[in-house]
Amino acid sequence: MSPIAFSIIIPHRNATNLLKRCLNSIPERNDLQIIVVDDGSEAKTIEELKRISRENIQILYSTPCKGAGHARNLGLEKALGKWILFADCDDFYEPEFNSFLNDNIDSCADCIYFSVNSVDSTTYSPGPRNFSYDEYISKFNPNVTRSEDWILFHKWEPWNKMISRTLIQKHHLKFDEFTKCNDMMFNIMVSFYAEKIKIIPNHLYCVTYNPGSMTFRRTKPEEFRDCLWAFKKKNIIMHKIGHWHWHMPMIIQHRFFIKKEGILPYFRLLAFYIRHYFAMIKAIRQFKKSLKTVQMVPKKIVD
Asked: Is the CB of residue 97 less than 8 Å from the CB of residue 25?
């Protein structure tokens, strides 16, 4: 067996047909490990998962449902590859992905960033979820200082990058185990600590649009609380790296919730938020303290 060079971690819950589409888009390679982490699926779905057969695939089971952040952390514990990638089970990779793996297997980068496409999950018509990827990558100019920051710190999803496992292990990076916005700080901290980076315009991944997914359904109070928590931490990092103008005032999040959900659900959420306020403040203070002696590593652009 070839040494594992790539590990792809895929959280999953009750979506085996979409998972199979994702798996079919991943090239068959002896040096590629696939880790599917099932997050509390129904018994019928578990039986379907057990019938999936493919080389170098490992299916982990987490019960009860603890969210995608917890699932990805479980996957990281089992990852063997030099390179780590993340996919959502309802998305898929583009045909060019295999060539990308071949071209970058020996890269000296800590993290490689790429662009993505977006389509409706059912009709495959163009979708909205790749908004600004091409724009931010086009802003990158290796001759302009910190022009890379647009794609490094303005896009926080895990699926538009390939990350050195050494970087993750060195800095003990983990996903927040939140109900929502659990991937934001992991990705920001990857960009914070990465010294050697590579940015390419290729569209290697397709993120799908599904109105029934968590991204588009109604927001639960605990999800809104967790997003506020994540954005507060993100704002701390933006100030630390000198992008104070990228600070997002919390009032914007509150206005967004009111616009999406209405005023009465907002007041119910506010009561929930107040009950958890002091625990959040304590956690934010601890996060600030952990960053006191840490500085962002200057970036070196590699080919």
From this structure: yes
